[in-house]
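Suppose you are handed a protein chain with no further information: no name, no annotation, nothing but its sequence. What can you learn? This example shows the usual starting point.
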Amino acid sequence: MEYNSTRGKMIISEYGRNIQKMVEFIVELDDREKRSRMARSLIDIMAQMHPEMRDAGDLKRKLWDHLHIMANFKLDVDSPYPAPSQQALAAKPQRIPYTQEDIRYKPYGKNIARIIEKAVLYEEGPEKEAFTKTIANHLKKAYLNWNRDSVNDELITKHLDVLSHGKLKLREDFRLNNTTDILARNKKKKFEGKSKSNHPGSNNINRPRHPFPGKSN
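A reasonable first move is to predict its three-dimensional structure. Written in structure tokens, the prediction is:
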């Protein structure tokens, strides 16, 4: 009995052990013409093994690349495509630089800081005042999503002052939206979202599935 621990490594396991053995057999053939002929036949077999890839425009090239990879780049045949570069495949992908942004207050995120930067550029007047009020109420709503136990209008006003570097001011007689009203609206939206997802016509994971997929009742 032959155990997997004693067998050679399958380089691309999706094609199975037999395909890997065929590749190794072709590599050892002395006749180049025969190697090329058998390689083309093997490509056809590999294509039949994955019919879901049939519509891919570059299917043949991918299969030839896989053949060279399974042969450890030792396959010398007449291929319609150049063999892939072993160095390119072994190279590590370039590191993706992530932007490191300093978020002063985590409950608000970084987008609100950008909105505040835009609001600061507005000329003084009713439009800027209305924009500032909207931002302040949004800050309170965002803060309540993070911590509904300790929030007051003075704290939100202070955060707005810090985030805008003192350039956005609320009128002294202005009052932010009531905490109870904000929580009630949030609760209502959450309830409505659940009701919609459980509606008989909705497509969600809670909807009972037909025992035979693809067939109608």
